[in-house]
Specification:
The chain has a domain of about 120 residues: Aminopeptidase, CATH 3.40.630.30. The C terminus is likely disordered. By secondary structure, it is of the alpha+beta class. The chain is globular and about 40 Å long. The longest helix is centred in the N-terminal third of the chain and has 14 residues. The protein contains four helices and eight strands; from the N terminus they run ββααβββαβαββ. It has an eight-stranded mixed β-sheet, sandwiched between helices. It binds coenzyme A. Coenzyme A binds next to strand 5, helix 3 and helix 4.
């Protein structure tokens, strides 16, 4: 098996390393204009399939890991939550996106909260950001619900994105990283 992140279990969800069984669900999700409305538009299936296949085969260990999200009682890919380096913010960023069939059930919040706790806790990162289009109200709400606060705006390609930030509680001047809404 390629190196992948450890599985994280939450009340309703399992966050696990991606496998090749997730390849087509990821390609379908990322070809959906509604999923990509605020994140650059739908991706070409063929090009994206090869890119995602390569990343799954290579594996993506922590700290910059990607977790497939599935229901604990109904396995099967519903979305992704990931950590990656943000050149724009100069920090590790957290991202989330789901197949539309999973929207509106608190899935992104539950998954993102668990990944944020892991990033600021066991992984030991001092701060995490999320870069979100100001029009993407659902994503902003997810960031707010997991305790991230808007810090500033940064240019990204041709747009401005809002930077939401959370820090380790132990850092001087830091805000609590995670709390319930
Ligand atoms: C953003 C996304 C991951 C949210 O997933 P989700 O599981 O539906 O999110 P949750 O249910 O945990 O929380 C969504 C919150 O946004 C709110 N919301 C949803 N649509 C909204 C809108 N148009 N305006 C304002 N609030 C909205 C919901 O009511 C909920 O808040 P609440 O719990 O206070 O009621 C999902 O919509 C998605 O995959 N979008 C496309 C990809 C994307 O844009 N990813 C983020 C890139 S920064």
């Amino acid at each position: 098996m390629p190196p992948g992140p450890p599985t994280i279990t939450t009340a309703r969800l399992r966050l696990r390393a991606r496998t090749l069984a997730d390849l087509e669900p990821i390609v379908e999700m990322d070809a959906d204009p509604s999923v990509r409305q605020f994140i650059g538009g739908p991706l070409d299936r063929a090009t994206h399939r090869e890119e995602v296949r390569r990343r799954i085969v290579e594996g993506r260990p922590e700290p910059h890991a990607s977790w497939a999200i599935e229901w604990r009682d109904h396995p099967g890919f519903v979305g992704l939550c990931h950590l990656s380096h943000s050149d724009e913010a100069g920090l590790t960023q957290i991202g989330w996106r789901l197949h539309p069939s999973a929207w509106g059930q608190g899935v992104a919040t539950e998954a993102a909260r668990a990944v944020l706790e892991r990033a600021l806790g066991p992984i030991g990162l001092p701060a995490i950001v999320a870069l979100i289009a100001p029009e993407n109200r659902a994503s902003i709400r997810v960031a707010e619900k997991i305790g991230m606060a808007q810090a500033r705006m940064v240019p990204y390609r041709n747009v401005l994105l809002a930077v939401y930030r959370a820090e380790q509680a132990s850092k001087p001047g830091a805000q609590p990283p995670v709390h319930s809404s």
